[in-house]
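Re: your question about Co-chaperone protein HscB homolog

S., sorry for the slow reply, the queue was backed up all week. Below is exactly what I fed in.
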Amino acid sequence: MGSPCHFALFDLQPGFRIDLEALGNRYRELVRTVHPDRFADASEREQRLAQAKAAELNDAYQTLKSVPRRALYLLALRGDALPLEATVQDPEFLLQQMQLREELEDLQESADLDGVAQFKRQLKSAQQRLEEDFADCWDDAARRDLAERLVRRMQFLDKLAQEVRQLEERLDD
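Result:
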């Protein structure tokens, strides 16, 4: 038997919409129980088990905390996992990706902080729309293809959001 489901570790029902504050609180509660300081005088075996439990909790927490990772995890629980590097069979989104990349490059070249802030707001709005769409269809086997397409879009926008944060940091320096 494998390890328990990530949701079960935190006493949550599997679902896309979760209370991130409750997740964080429960994570901190559980991780304290396996903190190395608590096992300083324990046997080597007990220390290893605590370390393994801490790693399992951390992995589960990181997965559930991240919107795209949580979405992928839910789809994996429902059936087969998405290939990590799948070609996006989504011409409309491929075009949108190219436009967003070009826009970000222009903002980088012009060092336009106001433009970056506006781009970031548009990106956040697009991410929220994707999250709503995914929440409506992830649990419906008949809409599995749509859910997978939305997850791939989420992954791209999440990566783009990270690049925007890095650009902001560079422009702030």
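The chain has two domains: 6-65, 91-172. The radius of gyration is 20 Å.

Happy to talk it through on Thursday.
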